[in-house]
Design a protein that fits this description.
Blueprint lengths: L8 E9 L2 E7 L2 H13 L3 H8 L3 E3 L10 H9 L4 E9 L2 E10 L6 H19 L8 H8 L7 H14 L3 H14 L4 H10 L12
Antiparallel strand pairs: 1-2, 1-5, 3-4, 4-5
Amino acid sequence: MPSGLRLSGAVVILRADEDTETVAASSDPGSANAADLEHALGEGPSRDALARGRPVLVGDLEGCGTVWVAYAHAAGAQGVRAVFSFPLQVGAARFGALTMYAGTPQRLGRTRTQRCLALAEIATETLLDSSDGVSSSRLEASLDGLLDLRVEVFQAQGMAMVTLRSDLATALARMRAHAYRTDRSLYEVSLDILAGRLTLTDERSDS
């Protein structure tokens, strides 16, 4: 993570449509896993930042009440205690979120919030750079970590859609449900689908 933020990790989440998001970049595996929880559970800071169009700042997940009952418990089990999510948007058009994590309860404060907003702007500019496309090196510099493209999630979602004869949203919902039931990440489920180890055909076969 960039110096001065004192946070443990970050992810960039992109939204393909109203019900479909995927992790586009992560600073470390732990952050990617925390973001995957939102896919599996259908709730969390990135989804709320996207829906509201404003930052979602939770300094202590244990004290967030009933906002994200499942997510708060699961993220806490992974060592996440605070989450700060910033929407990526141009005007009213929102297409992603930059979400950062901390292993201890804390408040960002004005200075760190401004730095996070600046990182969100950098991520937005990088993703919308029409001349260079999505520059992995610039995103990596912003997150100060390893860029981890999750195209596998989209590919597996398409395969599941064909198998289930459904739409993309339904396919993703089934993938999330399987990930939650088997206590695995959405990314791991996607790899199994792509490798032919998992076929979501009916409720018995994907359990």
